[in-house]
Specification:
Keywords: Signal
Structural class: alpha/beta
Number of domains: 1
Pfam family, one: DUF4874
Order of helices and strands: HEEHEHEHEHEHEHEHHEHH
Shape: globular
Radius of gyration: 18 Å
Organism: Hapsidospora chrysogenum (strain ATCC 11550 / CBS 779.69 / DSM 880 / IAM 14645 / JCM 23072 / IMI 49137) (Acremonium chrysogenum)
CATH architecture: Alpha-Beta Barrel
Protein name: DUF4874 domain-containing protein
Distance between the termini: 22 Å
């Protein structure tokens, strides 16, 4: 490892940067023993964690599983970026309940849980979650309810952690210009350098939303995961030379000040991540992520 890289890694550790974040999920009613048991992460010191709960239930078992996960991974200096989503008793995913008071009760419960693990594990950012498909604030019965969305974020802020909303449009509507709230993006680079990121940047006014995203989230714990399934997705992730080239993912990370990525999605990127031929490329992408908090 070069001296320059050693210095970068040391600086990143002191600045609590993130880099690659390894995906995990724990699901109410499931056996989560494997997910909550510490296993060494591959070029990562952070978990990208989805937590699935069932509306109207106390979800005590999955709360206990989360606390155990925090103990096991926190003891190894691994941090966690959680997002809570809804599911059905059979383990399948579900949308949020139509009753906003039920959602906000669940938000309050989890805000207390997140506050309670302070000192056990670091939470660099909470993804707002709770609403919509995959808890990504679309397609659910309350996803257009401004007051409920604001209350979800404010409820999670009571945990003491920074909170990220899914889109720049939601951010500007709810917390205009406020860097105390950041953004997360679950479809990074899906259309390449000029893409919409799965609708994150509406095409009819793309540059304005790109500019707003950079204003409120660059270097502000902004990140998520790449994808290839968003609306207008057109990027060829199997073209590793372009992904690793001068107009590829590293440049995009630097432009937006992205600080963390789940390398497990899309499958082609995960293949690149594990291909020793592209180890230098993956290291450069990691270094770019570690340049931003």
């Amino acid at each position: 490892m070069s001296i320059a890289r050693l210095l970068l890694v040391a600086a990143a550790a002191n600045a609590a940067t993130i880099g690659f974040a390894s995906y995990r999920e724990i699901i109410a009613g499931a056996d989560n023993s494997h997910a909550i048991t510490y296993t060494e992460l591959d070029r990562s010191s952070t978990l990208f964690l989805n937590i699935q709960i069932v509306a109207g239930e106390d979800n005590a078992a999955v709360i206990d599983d989360f606390r155990t996960l925090c103990e096991n991974y926190g003891a190894q200096n691994v941090s966690v970026i959680p997002r809570v989503r809804y599911g059905s008793p059979d383990g399948s995913m579900a949308l949020e309940p139509e009753d906003s008071s039920q959602v906000l009760t669940d938000v309050a419960t989890w805000a207390d849980v997140f506050a309670g693990v302070k000192g056990t594990i670091d939470i660099p950012v909470l993804q707002a979650g709770f609403l919509g498909a995959w808890a990504e604030w679309h397609s659910g019965p309350l996803c257009d309810d401004t007051e409920t969305r604001r209350a979800v974020v404010e409820g999670l802020q009571s945990s003491g952690a920074k909170v990220a909303v899914r889109t720049p449009m939601a951010h500007k509507e709810l917390f205009p210009g406020d860097r105390a709230v950041t953004i997360h993006n679950d479809c990074i680079f899906d259309g390449g350098p000029q893409g919409s990121d799965g609708g994150t940047f509406p095409e009819d006014d793309r540059q304005a939303w790109v500019d707003y995203t950079r204003e409120v989230s660059k270097g502000n714990t902004y990140g998520g995961e790449p994808c290839s399934l968003g609306g207008g997705s057109s990027y060829d992730w199997s073209d590793f030379e372009h992904v690793c080239g001068p107009g590829g993912l590293k440049a995009y990370i630097e432009y937006f000040g992205i600080s963390y990525l789940n390398p497990g999605n899309p499958p082609e990127f995960f293949e690149l991540f594990n291909d020793p031929t592209y180890a230098d490329c993956v290291e450069e992408i990691q270094d770019a992520l570690l340049s931003y908090q």
